[in-house]
Amino acid sequence: MSHDSVGAILTHCGWSSFIEGLTFGHPLIALPFLVDQGLNARIIADKQIGIEIPKNDEDGSYTKNSVSDSVKLLMVENEGKKFRDKAKEISAIFGDRELHGGYIDNFINFLENHMIMSNASTSG
Q1: Which parts of the chain have pLDDT scores under 50?
Q2: Does residue 123 lie within any of the structural domains?
Q3: Which of 8, 32, 80, 96 would bridge 37 by S-S if both were Cys, CB 3.0 to 4.6 A apart?
Q4: Distance of alpha carbon 42 from alpha carbon 91, whole angstroms
């Protein structure tokens, strides 16, 4: 997914796919099916980091035209530029290993310090 030839990611909107796509700065084309995927798709649309493929009003299915139109809008049309730009912007946060590593280091330090303080209060 990190290759420059990837223009967007068609995703079922599982949380891992959501994060992975944004880590590499690709806009997301949301095709939700189950559980939390619909909510994740709405977040994608609300934050303008991608679009949700519209469903057929009659039976709730996805049509080949709705899929192809969504891909074209996001990857080719001028209107899709705002989504591509926003996904790149967000990747600075999702792809920042130092930032995310810092959370883990801080948490470990907190636990170690808490254990030291807890042990000191119980032994004295």
Answers
A1: none
A2: no
A3: 32
A4: 19
DSSP symbols for 88-120: HHHHHHHT-HHHHHHHHHHHHHHHHHHHHHHHH
The residue behind tokens 């049509």 is 63
Q: What is the CATH number of the domain that holds 58?
A: 3.40.50.2000
Beta bridge partners of 52: 30
For the segment 80-105, what is each residue's pLDDT rounded down to a tens digit? Answer: 999 999 998 988 887 777 776 777 88
Domain that holds residue 17: 9-93
Q: How many Å separate Cα 24 from the centre of its chain? A: 10
C-beta separation of 48 from 74 below 8 A = no
pLDDT at 105: 83
CA separation for the pair 34, 12 (Å, rounded): 9
CA dist 7 and 110 (Å) reads 40
